[in-house]
Design brief:
Length: 181
């Protein structure tokens, strides 16, 4: 139903509706039963937020942050896969650099769920975000720690001259020294 959902979003002009109405719409989404499928939630994340976030020229408004937090309280994984990954892929630094991506992750992970950012492909812009997420976690579950270490090892040649990569590896070694052999 993705084409129909995209068509409905377009018909309702959800990508351009006022942000205070976006907050209400996200509230209605949370009340739906059964929950949206992963695919439907990903389509809605893209339709509702991607254009808005990529066109920001100043920090997000409180309405936009409230809508993001509301949506992410139930659908954080599709949100991270669609929106955060797209923001981090953008070539320009602009207002949506690492700090702003971290703000979006704060919305996505405010409910204390697993840090989905650790499952995204690493990029130079994502390295400080991963480090920030690690700083917020008390202890990573073993499966995520293993995934992080494996990813860092596999991608080491690509980041041979990266200061951000060196900082992230140092942070991992410092925070998890008892688990690293």
């Amino acid at each position: 139903c993705c084409p129909q959902l995209e068509g409905l979003c377009s018909f309702l002009q959800l990508s351009t509706c006022p942000e205070h109405l976006l907050v209400r719409f996200c509230g209605w989404l949370l009340a739906l039963t059964p929950d949206l499928s992963y695919t439907s939630a990903a389509v809605l994340a893209e339709q509702l937020f991607l254009k808005r976030v990529l066109s920001l020229t100043q920090p997000p408004s409180r309405h936009l942050m409230a809508a993001l937090a509301s949506f992410c309280s139930k659908y954080s994984q599709p949100f991270c896969r669609v929106l955060v990954a797209a923001v981090l892929r953008e070539p320009g630094e602009g207002v949506m650099g690492s700090q702003e991506a971290w703000l979006l992750l704060g919305a996505a992970e405010g409910d204390g769920e697993r840090p989905h950012v650790l499952e995204l492909p690493l990029s130079e812009k994502l390295l400080p975000v991963v480090q920030a997420v690690l700083g917020r976690q008390e202890v990573l579950p073993p499966e995520l720690f293993d995934l992080l270490v494996l990813t860092l090892c596999r991608q080491a040649p690509a980041f041979a001259t990266s200061l951000n990569y060196a900082k992230l590896v140092t942070a991992v070694l410092t925070m998890y020294q008892s688990q690293v052999s």
